[in-house]
Write a structure and sequence with these properties.
Largest sheet: 4 strands, antiparallel
Structural class: alpha+beta
Shape: elongated
CATH topology of the largest domain: N-terminal domain of MutM-like DNA repair proteins
Low-confidence stretches: 276-287
Mean pLDDT: 92
CATH class of the largest domain: Alpha Beta
Radius of gyration: 22 Å
Order of helices and strands: HEEEEEEEEHHHHHEE
Number of helices: 6
Distance between the termini: 48 Å
Length: about 290
């Protein structure tokens, strides 16, 4: 799933194509609800911004186009007449201006919202502080982590809760917890205030590095990957074989290093590895 840094880069790509330009043509397609984007024709784009994992494109007629990519959505920009890299079957949205065509492919969520309604529109109003905002509110993120209802959740699940702080997905969940030395199945209630503060700061700096913003990691460009998609491979720090298991309701595997991210005595939640059934040759058991 594209994370906050991916949406930030998409916004950077769309902004010069759309900003201060009049929409000459617009169309949207299913599956799912199809917004009446004909209302955008004749309107001028006033801003293009990412908020967490959401793309928000505002217009001077008071409408905002919101897109959420989930797992497979993407944004492309083409010159008029240029061949597209995806098929028409995958198209969800097309916006045409004088010198560019912006196309969204495969996003399950494309909707129109009135700008004045964004403050009460749940997908936006319920978001936690955005990690890539220059005014990112660390104190608010900390308070969200310390809500009583979050204490029993694992840190591997809580860090991706967009209501806590917006922008972290599966990649930066892995890399934040590895760098903080935290086992993904530790609950939020088992972490000290200092550890929560470190999680917030590390996630922020990883995302900032990924989009080329100044960061305390001294990284230029996307930081190195230590654990994401590396279950079963040797740790790049200590060479211990990384383990992996499904976490929460996510069918994807969470990987961790048992040495760099050790379990703690009395840890209340344990990972349950998914085992593949082995084929049975012949008759395994007598009747």
């Amino acid at each position: 799933m594209p994370e906050g840094d991916s949406l930030y880069r998409f916004a950077e790509r769309l902004r010069p194509a759309l900003l201060n330009k009049e929409i000459l043509a617009a169309r949207a397609h299913g599956p799912g609800p199809v917004p009446r984007v004909a209302a955008l024709v004749g309107a001028t784009c006033t801003s293009v911004r990412a908020q967490g994992k959401n793309m928000l494109i505002s217009f001077d007629n008071g409408l905002v186009l919101r897109g959420h990519l989930r797992m497979y959505g993407t944004w492309h920009v083409y010159r008029p007449g240029e061949p597209w890299q995806r098929t028409e079957h995958d198209v969800r949205l097309v916006l045409e201006v004088q010198d560019a065509v912006v196309v969204n492919f495969n996003a399950p969520v494309i909707e129109l919202v009135e700008e004045r309604a964004l403050t009460v529109h749940a997908p936006i109003s319920q978001l936690g502080p955005d990690l890539l905002d220059e005014g990112f509110d660390r104190d608010a993120a900390f308070r969200h982590f310390r809500q009583p209802g979050l204490a029993a959740r694992t840190i591997g699940e809580a860090i991706m809760d967009q209501k806590v702080m917006a922008g972290v997905g599966n990649i930066w969940k892995h890399e934040t917890l590895f760098r903080c030395g935290l086992h993904p199945w530790l609950t939020v209630g088992e972490l000290s205030d200092e550890e929560i503060i470190e999680v917030i700061g590390t996630a922020q700096q990883l995302l900032r590095a990924s989009v080329g913003k100044p960061n305390s990691l001294m990284a230029r460009g996307r930081p190195s990957i230590f654990s994401y998609l590396r279950g079963g491979q040797p740790c790049r720090r200590c060479f211990t074989r990384l383990r992996s298991a499904p976490q929460g309701g996510d069918i994807r595997q969470t990987a961790w290093c048992p040495k760099c991210q050790p379990e703690r005595p009395g840890q209340t939640v344990q990972p349950v590895p998914r085992h593949r059934a082995l084929p049975v040759r012949g008759r395994a058991f007598p009747h």
